[in-house]
Design brief:
Blueprint lengths: L8 H39 L4 E6 L4 E4 L1 H7 L3 H4 L10 H16 L4 E3 L5 E4 L5 E12 L4 E9 L1 H42 L3 H23 L40 E6 L3 H11 L3 E7 L2 H11 L3 E4 L8 H11 L4 E6 L3 H11 L3 E4 L4 H12 L18
Parallel strand pairs: 7-8, 7-9, 9-10, 10-11
Antiparallel strand pairs: 1-2, 1-6, 3-5, 4-5, 5-6
Amino acid sequence: MADPTQPDDAGQARANLERKVRDLEQQLEHLRAVSARGDSQLRTVLENAPDAAISVDADGAIVWINRRAEDFFGYRRDELVGEQLETLLPERYRNAHVGHRTGFVRDPNPRPMGTGLELYGQRKDGSEFPVDVSLSAIEGDDRPLFLALVRDMTARKEAEQAARRLSEHELLRRQALEINDVVVQGLATATYALDAGESETASEALRATIASARSLMGDLLGAEHDFLPGELLRGRPAMVVRDREEQLPDETPSAPGLRGKSRIVIADDTPDIRLLMRSALRAAFDVVGEAADGREAIEIVARERPDAILLDLAMPVMDGLQAIPEIRRVSPETKVVVLSGYGRNHMGDEALSAGAQAYLEKGRSLDFITETLHKVCAGEPPPEFDEVIPLTPWR
C-alpha cells in the first residue's frame, strides 16, 4: 500500500518541472539585468563619445542619437527620433543611400562607409560638412539595430588643404627659380650678345636656352604624362613682340604656284612666329594661308588644299592634336608637319599617331625646317633628327 505522505510519480515530476521553470526564470531575469547593465554602460560610453553616434532600425528610422550628434547636425533628439537617417544627408545622396543602407541590413558586417569617396553630412540649417562614417550591427531589446559612428572631418580637411597649399607654394617658388636660371638668364645673355654685335654668341645662347627650357618642361610634365586631344588648348593669348600688321623688310607677297613651289599653310597662335616663318619660307614655298588656331587651320586647309601645313600644337579654340585628324579628313593629300615648343620625347608620338608626317621642335634651324617641308611635300621621309643643341643652361 502506497505511503500517503510521499508524492506519487506524477506529482514528483510536476514539482521537478516547476523547480526548473523557477530556475530558468531566475536565470533569465539575471541575464536581463546583465543586459540592461550592459546597455546602460554602452549608452553611457556612446553618450560621451567624441564622435556622433546614431542608431537606426532595419527600416532606417532613427532610434537614438548622442549629444555629439546633436552638436554636429544642429537637431534636438526629439526632432530626429523616428525620422529617416537620410535626413542627415545632402539631397543629392539620399536616393542612393537607401540602397546602400538596405544592402548593409542584409549583410551587417562592420565596415567603413564610402571608402575612397568624399562623404558629407547636412546640418539642420542646410550647410554641409565632410564626414567619416563607420557602420556596425547591435542587439536591440526586441529588434536588430544598426549603429553609425560619424566623425566630423572638417579640421582634417582644412589641415590637408593648408599642407597642399604650402606644398604648391614651395613648388611654384622652385619653378620660378628654375625659370629664372634657365630662361631669363639665357635670354639676357642673348640680348647682351646682340647689343654687342655677337650674333653667333646670341644664336648659341638662344638655342641653349630653348633646349634647357624644353628640358624643364619635360621635368614639370613628368615622363608618364600622355596628352589627349584638347589638353593643349592655350588659355591666354600668345605674346606679341611686334605689331601683327608690321611687315619684315623687303617682304612682298608671292604669287600662287610661283615657279611650281609647294603650297603651304602656317598655323601658329603667335603672330611673330607666323611673320618670321612666312618671311623665311616664302623664297622656297608658296605660303597660301595663315591660321591663329586649330579651327581656322582646318578651314584654310579645306579651302586651299595645300601640299603641307606647318602646325603648332598649343593653340586656342582647338589645339593641334585635335586639328590633325580633321585636317587629314578635309584634305587627305595635305601633309602635316608639327612645329611645337613641346619636346619631341613628350609630344612626338602623340602627333605622329594623330596623323602628322613629321615633328619638329621650335628652335630648330630654318634650314632644317625648310628641308623637312621639302622632303615631306615630295613624299620622302623627313630628315633625321640629328641637329645637336647644347643642354647647358646660360646663367
